Amino acid sequence: MRQGFADTTFGQVYFRESGAGLPLLLLHQTPRSADEFADVQPLLATKRRTIAMDMVGFGASPRMPAPQSIETMAAGGLALMDALGIDRFAVMGHHTGGAVAIEIAASEPERVTHLIASNAPWTDAAFRRDHADGSGVDDAERTSDGSHLLSLWGFRAQFYPPNRPDILDRFIRDALAPGLDPVEGHRACARYVIEDRIALVTAPVLLIGAEADPFAMPHLPHLRAGLTQAATVETVIIPGGMIPLMEQCPEPVAQAVLAFLEQNPRD
Predict the structure, then answer these.
(1) What is the mean pLDDT of residues 30-56?
(2) Best CA proximity match to 204, nearest among 223, 221, 225, 229
(3) Which of 86, 99, 205, 217 is deepest in the core (most CB within 10 A)?
(4) Under a CB-based contact definition with an 8 Å cutoff, are residues 177 and 59 in contact?
(5) pLDDT digit string (tens) for 57-79?
(6) Predicted local distance difference test score (pLDDT) of residue 265
(7) pTM listed for this prediction
(8) What angle do CA 87, 91, 97 make, to 5 degrees?
């Protein structure tokens, strides 16, 4: 695994790179970082050149002033690809990263060979209305007694696999990154007008759903219906999968992604 910073129009963007061959850009959920793919990236790297980034506004990448947007995060991903000299690539995103991946594929269809959207949100007018102030999760004001740490843990624990505090430890570390407002990434999702963008996607698409994710699973039919111009659309449901799907179920995720890429050659 190679780690580095790329000079971009946003500043120095952090990324982790592994493998060789055709490139696959990996985009994390709010408020995570490239670390979200630490378990699945080595599996994907057996067949692909994988690049997991800290999206702009997160991790070790430059902070963005509020209000943040999915469009800006997508521009950050494209800026990283430009800095690395990569013209055509596949893109995979999880939760917020799924929305960013959709925007990248919509804005640069000639560059995106494949789109993998894992547990992506369907941010239509109803979603935007209901989530204008954030998702109701990750909203814990920092306190002098540290009680916000327990609040952050508690928000997520009910949607994470039992007996896996290691996954929550990794979430907490990312949520406490200096200068990061964990809620702002959720608000960015609530500002994204997906219904005006998703029909611009022309690449083959794989939609991944985590069976036990109560937030994203209901969105899958809407995403599929919106992909009216995609070359193909496939759906894979990961049994028992929850919000931290990349860490909880790396093997079935990697198997689904690699099979999709191999069965839909466009590179």
Answers:
(1) 98
(2) 229
(3) 99
(4) yes
(5) 999 999 999 999 999 999 999 99
(6) 85
(7) 0.97
(8) 130
What is the Cα 213 distance to its own chain's centre?
A: 15
**DSSP class of residue 230?**
-
Polymer length in residues for the chain = 267
Count CB neighbours of 55 within 10 A. 30
For the chain, domains (ranges, CATH) are 2-263 (3.40.50.1820)
Give kind and range of the element (H or E) at residue 253. helix 250-263
* Tens of pLDDT, residues 159-216: 999 999 999 999 999 999 999 999 999 999 999 999 999 999 999 999 999 999 999 9
Separation of alpha carbons 199 and 206, rounded Å = 15
Section 100-125 average pLDDT: 98
Residue 185: burial class (beta carbons within 10 Å; 0-12, 13-18, 19+): buried
Amino acid identity of 203?
A: A
Residue 237 one-letter amino acid? I
> Under the phi-then-psi rule, with left for phi > 0, alpha for psi from -120 to 50, and beta for the rest, what region is 188?
alpha
Q: For residues 260 and 52, give the distance between their C-alpha atoms in angstroms, rounded to a whole number.
A: 19
> Rounded to an integer, what distance in angstroms lies between the CA atom of residue 58 and that of residue 103?
18
Q: Are strands 112-118 and 89-94 parallel, antiparallel or unpaired?
A: parallel
Closest CA to 189 of 71, 27, 28: 71
**Alpha-carbon span 193 to 234, nearest angstrom:** 23
**Cross-strand pairs, 13:** 6
